[in-house]
C-alpha cells in the first residue's frame, strides 16, 4: 500500500534543535538527520511586515466619474508625507511607533486650474476631499497584509502599494 510522506498525523518538523530531537524521537524524519529543513508557511502576511516607506500608496477606491485621479499618500522614513486628494494636495507629518500611526496634515494646496494636475473640482469632490482629510487626521494605527496597507482609526482606509 502507498504511504504519503510525511504521515499526516505527525505534520512537519521545524529545523530547530528541540524540534529535530522531538521529531527524531517520535520517529518522524528518521534517516533524514542533517537534511531537515524549515517549513515556512506561505499565506497571508504577518503583522510584522514593515511599513513601505517611500512607496506610493493608492486609496482602494474607484476614480470618480469624469476623472482618472485616485487619492494617494507617500510617507518617507523621516515621517514627511505627501498626500494627493481627489482635488487638492498637501504635505503632512506622520509619527510611527510599532503599529501606531498619527498623521498631522499641513496646509491644503488646491490644484492649479488649467494644468494637467487640476481635475474638475465640483462640490462633491471637494466634500470627498474634506471627508478623506478628516479620516486621515483620525488615523491611530496601521497594518499590512502583502500589498494592502490599512490605516486604522475612526474610519479604516485601505491603500494598495503601487508596485509598477
List keywords for this structure.
164 residues, alpha+beta, Lipocalin, 2 domains, 8-stranded antiparallel beta sheet, 2 helices, globular
Give an overview in words.
With 164 residues, the chain is an alpha+beta fold. It folds into 2 domains: 1-42, no CATH class; 56-161, Lipocalin. The protein is built from 2 helices and 8 strands; from the N terminus they run αβββββαβββ. The protein has helices at residues 17-25, 123-137, and strands at 56-59, 72-75, 80-84, 88-97, 100-110, 139-145, 148-153, 157-161. An 8-stranded antiparallel β-sheet has the order 5-4-3-2-1-8-7-6, with helices on one face. A hairpin with a 3-residue loop joins β7 (148-153) and β8. The radius of gyration is 24 Å and the shape is globular. It starts with 16 loop residues before the first helix and ends with a strand. The model is unreliable at 1-47 (pLDDT under 50).
SSE topology sketch:
Elements: H1 17-25, E1 56-59, E2 72-75, E3 80-84, E4 88-97, E5 100-110, H2 123-137, E6 139-145, E7 148-153, E8 157-161
